[in-house]
Amino acid sequence: MSWLWTSEDLINIMHGRPIGSLPAGITGISIDSRSIGAGEAFFAIKGDRVDGHDFASMAMANGASLLVVSEARLPALGRLTVPMIVVEDVLAALTTLGIAGRNRSRAKIVAVTGSVGKTTTKEMLRHVLSPSGKVHASVASYNNHWGVPLTLARMPLDSDFGVFEVGMNHPDEIRPLVKMVRPHVAIITTVAAAHLGNFKNIKEIAAAKAEIFEGLEPDGDVILNRDSDQFSFLERQAQALGIGRIYSFGQHAKADFRMAEFNGSQERSALWLTLGNETFEIAIGAPGRHIAENALAVLGAVTLVGADLDRAIEALATLQPEKGRGKRYKLSIDNGSFTLIDESYNANPASMRAAIALLAAGAGESGGRRIAVLGDMLEMGDHARKVHADLAVPLLAAGIEYVWLAGPEMLALKEALPDTVHVEYRETTAALVDFVLKAVTSGDTLMVKSSLGTGFGKIVAALLDKFPAFADTKPQT
């Protein structure tokens, strides 16, 4: 049996106290009692809303081979007679284990941050590095103070590549995380007005993103967006730390990984990458210029970690958008179909503009409507009214004539749009769900976009529940 960690390792690294008859080792680590696998260790982390200790029995019933629990909560577990490792603080123990996981690894490590596109870029890296070796990457958006150490602790010893997403919504959040990850390559996708309510301006956001440089391995590489207004600032921040290997991507003439040309459709994209004196034609199995731009950074990272560039380029052709991040559905309605673009995972002004551009490229079937279904962008602070009203500009430029809105902040956009746009507004997400289910018709293309906390995923779920997948029965010619 190949263990992720032996029980002896766990005890020694976490300075834990064993109780009961521990297994020889564990096959994995989980903090979710519902999805834990057989042979895994359950770390009973206390979160903001729930305490993992309350679900210890469920974790064992679902196959956990041992529990990692805190000394203070041990009495509350009562007569639970199961293998346990007792520690002072479970999250601190997980962090210590994550650092040990990084220390023992020989994998080439890539860390990704940015205001937009972190998770998509991370998944793209996972996808294109896989033909070159064993890849370990963050699950979903596990990019915070528990997600990063959990991902590190889960990294198998034989991984060839590790891909980590590092997030923040305040200053000083990336710094401790990236010092655990210690990447060989650090990517900043872009700097935009995300979490603007927690910062004075964009420059402060850029400074927070630049914290990723502080954990870079000696002789490591940095990849920056040359088209970003913050490129020069970020470059200076990296240089001030003595980082000499700074690369760039984008359409800028001086970009190291340069987009010479882009051609997009509703379903796919094509770009021409100029790298040194060579130009590569690249097909991407997902639509959107923003996807193609981040693919430049991804392919740059591929070259820097020594993976196979040709095989990575081939893999991009089979890339598929993730749920909540541009995934498309063709659904049956009446005697026809409509298209749903699921962008419901999160939103800020930059990602809203990218999603609107994606909708603009997807003309409705047989002249059907293109409909932007939009909810509030959260954490905008005093800038909220302005950034919501400003969305009128890209909507009008894209020729979007149907806009369905919900949420208190979206009132500003409703008021900013002219009478030529057909606007429907509801105060709550629930009220908009009811409207959307009744108003969608054959030939429509709907793009659903909002911050995660607004619950706009319910609109997507309701549409998928009511309308079955469309089966194209037309004969092939």
Poorly predicted regions: none
- For the record, the CATH architecture of the largest domain stands as 3-Layer(aba) Sandwich
Number of domains: 3
Indicate the overall shape.
globular
Q: What class would the helix/strand composition place it in?
A: alpha/beta
Q: Supply Rg.
A: 24 Å
CATH class value of the largest domain: Alpha Beta
Fraction of residues in H or I helices:
25-40%
Separation of the first and last Cα atoms: 53 Å
Global mean pLDDT: 92
Strand content: 15-25%
CATH superfamily of the largest domain: Mur-like, catalytic domain
Note the main sheet.
Answer: 9 strands, mixed
Count of alpha/pi helices:
16
What is the CATH topology descriptor of the largest domain? UDP-N-acetylmuramoyl-L-alanine:D-glutamate ligase
- Give a count of the beta strands, DSSP E runs of length 2 or more: 22
For the largest sheet, list the strands in their spatial order. Answer: 9-10-8-11-12-13-14-15-16
Give an overview in words.
The protein is α/β, with parallel strands linked by helices. The protein folds into three domains: 83 residues, MurE/MurF, N-terminal domain (Udp-n-acetylmuramoylalanyl-d-glutamate--2,6- Diaminopimelate Ligase, Chain: A, domain 1), CATH 3.40.1390; 212 residues, Mur-like, catalytic domain (UDP-N-acetylmuramoyl-L-alanine:D-glutamate ligase); 140 residues, Mur ligase, C-terminal domain (Protein-Tyrosine Phosphatase, Chain A), CATH 3.90.190.20. The protein contains 16 helices and 22 strands. A hairpin with a 2-residue loop joins strand 17 and strand 18. Helix 3 crosses helix 5 and helix 15 packs parallel to helix 16. The longest helix has 16 residues. The model has no long low-confidence stretch (mean pLDDT 92).
